[in-house]
Amino acid sequence: MNLTLKVWRQKNSSAKGTFETYQLDNVDVHASFLEMFDVLNEKLINEGKEPVAFDHDCREGICGTCSMVINGRAHGPLQNTTTCQLHMRHFKDGDTIVVEPWRSKAFPVLKDLVVDRGAFDRIIAAGGFVSVNTGQAPDANTIPVKKEKAELAFDAAACIGCGACVAACKNSSAMLFVSAKVSHLALLPQGNAERYSRVLNMVAQMDKEGFGSCTNTNACEAECPKGISVTNIARLNREYLAASLAAQKK
Amino acid sequence: MALDSKIPAGSLEEKWTRFRSTVKLVSPANKRKLDVLVIGTGLAGASAAASLAELGYRVSAFTFHDSPRRAHSIAAQGGINAAKNYRNDGDSTYRLFYDTIKGGDYRAREANVYRLAEVSGNIIDQCVAQGVPFAREYGGLLDNRSFGGVQVERTFYARGQTGQQLLIGAYQALERQVGLGNVQMYTRHEMLDVVIRNGRAVGIIVRDLITGEIQRHAGHAVVLATGGYGNVFFLSTNAMGCNVTAIWKAHKKGAFFGNPCFTQIHPTCLPQHGDYQSKLTLMSESLRNDGRVWVPKAKGDKRRPEEIPDAERDYYLERKYPSFGNLVPRDIASRAAKEVCDEGRGVGTTGLAVYLDFADAIKRLGQKVVEARYGNLFEMYEKITGDNPYQTPMMIYPAVHYTMGGLWVDYNLSTTVPGLYAIGECNFSDHGANRLGASALMQGLADGYFILPYTIGEYLSGEILAGKNDAKWSEFDEAENAVKSKIERLFSIKGKHSVDHFHRQLGKVMWDDCGMARSKDSLSRAAVEIRKIRDAFWNDVRITGAPNELNPELEKALRVADFFELGELMVQDAMHREESCGGHFRLEHQTPDGEALRHDDQFMYVAAYEYKGDNQQEAMHKEDLKYEVVKPSQRSYK
Ligand SMILES: Cc1cc2nc3c(=O)[nH]c(=O)nc-3n(C[C@H](O)[C@H](O)[C@H](O)COP(=O)(O)OP(=O)(O)OC[C@H]3O[C@@H](n4cnc5c(N)ncnc54)[C@H](O)[C@@H]3O)c2cc1C
Ligand code: SF4
Ligand code: FES
């Protein structure tokens, strides 16, 4: 297939970016979207031009590194699919495809399609963990966990930290990401002791990082490649309320 | 230099306990004065950095990724072994130890492997306490399943995303220490050299991947946890960024490299489909629990799989290995697939694929159960290939997956350079010539959580009086200048081809001539070819952009440059090892029925290589392996 690509090019975080248009011919329908970019880059290098910088690593939909807004949609047109798992068979010969980076104040563009998602790490560092030092743990089967609970926790823990939820949200809210972690740990007995401090600290850090607030548009859920549900946001709100009340009582 | 593996005295069962009760300790007040640099924050690095920081050491951690959560460990699917015997099926520390030694084809060190089995249970405890959502049974207790090469169910798993959940656990422990100010985290920083002074590791040189700035970091010890080097084959199941650079630089500065040619080829990967292909995707080996592997009995049978009646199918693993069937170890399953394809019975457009069929499992268990067990893997398969494995068999083929070779380490996980440690996949490891499924995660976390934090004390206790290491020392100048001039040299070539162009060529040579089957001829050819490609690279590569900016082409070039040198060493090692063992199969050394033929009388040792300078043949040192408990025999899975 032959394609026209409009790709965001930006030299660094302080430069002004623009779209560049590239013609790419004979793309194999079985290639992945990133392999299509490899072919484009090889072509650019052969022409003596600078290839497009983009983030990627596992190319299996699990590391959360890849991050492209494709025709206005984070990770492209397919549901539950990361950019690296999107294949060219879902496009048509002659298509024009527009590719941009995640856009959010909290995720500054570093170059071309590469953004800085360090804010997510800082939110985790603020409270997204169970405080248990190495060697302190009791035998793993000491605390049984109901299968349904464990499965629910897993559904939330499946978040890959890609940031598509932020990119998809008109307010750049990080609520889906934060709620996934809060839910994962709040649903398990192991996370219980720090339940309240965790949610308060993570939300405080989220606000500090400059993410917008949630107005329940559910755009995040629609674009999340791992199917993280907005019911997690509802749970976060409940946890937050309970934690705030508990803090006032003290 | 004689290799000293520093194995503690005493019986196998006593060694580790004895070591822990006698190892020198560092007082809490002194720990605060000691800097440890941890390079790599996958399972091994993140668990080590977090544990060391919890103990009170000052830790700096480095990763080339934008977050520790991206490390390649995230991609592990199948599970993690532990000798918990929760199944009451006769598992024990000894049995896990024995299976690992046997699975490794008797090329691993007994003492290390026993210790690994000993701490395996603690890993599960630790991870569960962190909130890792392992699979559970209806009663709320942990579930287990079996994995290739063993007859007990000891594999803990978290759907098909075990690596992800374990890494997130370790990442969260690490970020907690970052938040507490005990770990200084450097993301998007790539280590490009280690600094040695008076024979000891005192720091590293790193490149800030965003600004291109070359930085110096001094520390009392350097811990490498930088993963495997399977990407020397260009196509592998490894993530795109996996590389050998950190350990290769350490090797060139004096750390011996153990068993470089021991590569694991995984039997269940998606076959290659085009030239533009950038990587191969693994389908978890757990699929072999319920899937049946077959090819048509007749050569060149082009019928669709559904049209081939049972009687005309060859379930070759079940036929050749009746007691293990589809669950034989990886090296055996891979070679058997290659064999039937070489006979012309392979399937798919290229003839380089075999079927993995779930029709019987679906009949026996129902689609619901199969979906619960493998749903996400089936989905992934369909996403990539466009085929629905509930309706038509999967097509699979072996691919490079894991490297058992790596930096040689002693019982303390120290390399031959004092102060320089290697943990996780990047050391030459406990897996001998072949790793069992679900044992890499176990080893990475054992090293990081439960072994290194103890063993490193032995060295660091001696560093308390040494004072602070100083990044102004001339050794840092030299190392930094060497890195800078290498980068300048790459830019000055201004050739015609991209880095990938050369990497792809290297990969093809490695796969064809130093891959699943090796011979004197193929290896001699490889040695010549690699040198040609390497020379062409240094004359004709084109690095676009500039050094002082985010520059993925430069990053690739620096990694590929090291892959060439590593490739040459792998060939040298494969050539010298005139036997077949585990993943290393020399055509000249096989039994009459085509199984690997070891020569224990000549090769029961770890080959540890010493770098001797540019373009010099490396010197080989032997660590003889003594089997005091297990009696080596020819592996049989029949
Ligand atoms: C697809 C797949 C599935 C697997 N499934 C299983 C399984 O089910 N069970 C099992 O036991 N094993 C499995 N394995 C193997 C296992 O995942 C790995 O061996 C293991 O995770 C390696 O962990 P590690 O911490 O040693 O390295 P990695 O996770 O690879 O981490 C390496 C770290 O080093 C950093 N790094 C590397 N070089 C540099 C440098 N120069 N400078 C700075 N940082 C650097 C990286 O950024 C990263 O943080 C699988 C492997 C693959 C490929
Ligand atoms: S919630 Fe979904 S979209 Fe957001 S970071 Fe996690 S996986 Fe990505
Ligand atoms: S590259 Fe890992 S999720 Fe896409």
Relevant terms:
heterodimer, A: alpha+beta, Ubiquitin-like (UB roll), Fumarate Reductase Iron-sulfur Protein, Chain B, domain 2, 2 domains, 5-stranded mixed β-sheet, 36% helix, B: 638 residues, alpha+beta, Flavocytochrome C3, Chain A, domain 1, Methane Monooxygenase Hydroxylase, Chain G, domain 1, 5-stranded parallel β-sheet, binds flavin-adenine dinucleotide, binds iron/sulfur cluster
Overall description:
The complex is a heterodimer of chains A (250) and B (638). Chain A is of the alpha+beta class. Chain A has helices at residues 33-46, 118-127, 147-157, 164-168, 175-186, 195-208, 219-223, 231-249; strands spanning 3-9, 18-24, 69-70, 73-74, 96-100, 109-111, 114-115. In chain A, the strands form two sheets. In chain A, strands 2-1-5-3-4 form a five-stranded mixed β-sheet. Chain A has a two-stranded antiparallel sheet with strand order 6-7. The longest helix of chain A is centred in the C-terminal third of the chain and has 19 residues, at 231-249. The N and C termini of chain A lie far apart (65 Å). With 638 residues, chain B is α+β, with helices and mostly antiparallel strands. Among the domains of chain B are: 266-399, Succinate dehydrogenase/fumarate reductase flavoprotein, catalytic domain (Flavocytochrome C3, Chain A, domain 1, Alpha-Beta Complex); 486-624, Up-down Bundle (Methane Monooxygenase Hydroxylase, Chain G, domain 1). Chain B has helices spanning 12-22, 28-31, 43-55, 93-103, 110-130, 162-179, 245-252, 316-320, 330-342, 359-365, 367-385, 440-460, 474-493, 499-514, 520-540, 552-576, 600-603; strands at residues 35-39, 58-62, 80-81, 155-156, 183-186, 189-197, 200-208, 214-218, 221-224, 257-258, 263-269, 292-296, 313-314, 354-357, 394-403, 406-407, 420-422, 605-610, 619-624. Chain B starts with 11 loop residues before the first helix and ends in a 14-residue tail after the last strand. The mean pLDDT of chain B is 95. The interface between A and B is large, with 80 and 83 residues. Residues 39-45, 62-65, 71-73, 75-80, 162-163, 190-191, 225-228, 237-238, 242-243, 245-246, 282, 401-402, 424-426, 438-441, 444 of chain B line the site of flavin-adenine dinucleotide.
